[in-house]
Amino acid sequence: MPVQHLHVAEHRALAGTLRGAWPGLPALLAGSATVCAGATLTVLLAPGVTPVSVLVAAVLVGPGAAALARAADDGATVRQWWLALRELWRFGLLQCLVAAAPTAAFLVALRLWQETGADWLLLSVGASGAAALFALFALSVALPLGALRPELRGRLLWGCALHLALRRPLRHLAGPCLGVLGVWAAVQWTASLLLLTPGPAMVVAIAAVRVACATEPESSDSAARA
Fold this sequence. Notes:
The protein is mainly α.
């Protein structure tokens, strides 16, 4: 019986997210354009993959990504997306900075090791690299989770995001992988594909978080009964 309820919860969460994707296409397009504009400004202001460019990207892309996460849920209108941007811009900026800080530290440590060749810096490179990897992975869950659940903030949000991400890693890797695939396709063929990348990637990320939130109570109840 618990397994049956689990499948029902997953189906309802996925169906609700996908049903809202079609009527929410204008809002998704507006959100994708905002994210792409932030990424373009980042490339112009801080070219290359550097500690500065990572921090600039967090500031310029984070607010738009948070609003896109809200727009990707349940068929938001353009007006609702705009209200979400005004409401969540600070939230998106802060969450992206949390992940950008260890990433920038990793790039600094890597650059120092490449320039000096000091073996003791390998420890710093490894530690900061692991922290950056975990932070970026958790961000792919924390951003949509925080947009869906405004009551989750700070350490509670990141604790829940890490728990969900590590419990079903492949499920939450789908959104980031789709984003990377879109960027690769844009580089290989045409840059116009970039505008179509953030929206679908965020819809997949929202669907993964919705399924996780729907099934987590069932899993907790089963564990408690066991």
